[in-house]
Task: structure prediction
Amino acid sequence: MTREDIERAAAAIRDGDLAVYPTETVYGLGADALDEDAVERVFEAKDRPRDKPVSLAVPDVDAALEYVRAAERERRFMREFLPGPVTVLCEKREAVPDALTGGRERVGVRVPDHEVALDLLREVAPVTATSANVSGRPSATRVADLDDEIRDAAAVVLDGGETGGTGSTVVNVATGEIHRRGPNADAVAAWLGE
Result:
């Protein structure tokens, strides 16, 4: 993985194209999360229902706060668990398109704990954070596992080797709900219960 690879992927995303990138959980399908047309391409590539929201990835919590309104408790949670395999549902700001959230008021925020993903996000963000697979099929933990449809749809594929293999824990701190249990779910539950 070279600096040029990262720059090529960032350029593709800036141009409205898709890029596959590794995270500490599974491979992600990245597009400009604020560009409705690019977001639409993500849904098409994944054959994903439009009412199933897609999260956005950023390089750090401060960047996340540019796109979401987070209460003090949500900010404390994010600073505790991000970067890491956790997606935090927060109230979206106006810049975040309804296409990304399926019209919902909350958007999932992800700060991956993976150097390649973070290098990419420092170049271009926010980027869609959704597994790089056709909906209903297994998530890819290696580039070799990518569905042909995803490979064909992506302008650039960043190979970061094998990933952790389990989707992130999805949590709504405001309501104290864990919507999907993944890595760190027990620690998240304990924090919510404090």
Q: What stands out?
A: Strands lie at 18-21, 28-30, 55-57, 68-69, 86-92, 106-110, 127-129, 154-157, 169-172, 177-180.
